[in-house]
# Entry
Amino acid sequence: QVPLVESGGGSVQAGGSLRLSCAASGYTYSRECMGWFRQAPGKEREGVAAIYTRRGSVYYADSVKGRFTISQDKAKDTVYLQMNSLIPEDTAMYYCATDVVARSGVVPLYPRLYQYWGQGTQVTVSS
# Structure
């Protein structure tokens, strides 16, 4: 088990900002990649942003580029998702996940690549 605990969700108006946090603890596996995903009611889970923890490479879905920023604090074993200029379409349950497999040449925005998931935090954006 790799406990992942998300926090920071909430309700905001369009144009507002939120910062999500994902804290990992009690793990024995190397977290090669950390990702943020979201799932709206009736829709499939989709990748939002990801970061390879060793080299710091970051990836974003086209829908959030320029608005969201993923970052990490290795000392705190925490990954963040800063979300700015939020729009109602960003409304979803947001999950963080970790991939313990070392990969290369892979865009890490596919849920199937990840083995451990948090419980999620709700983000609601009103117009």
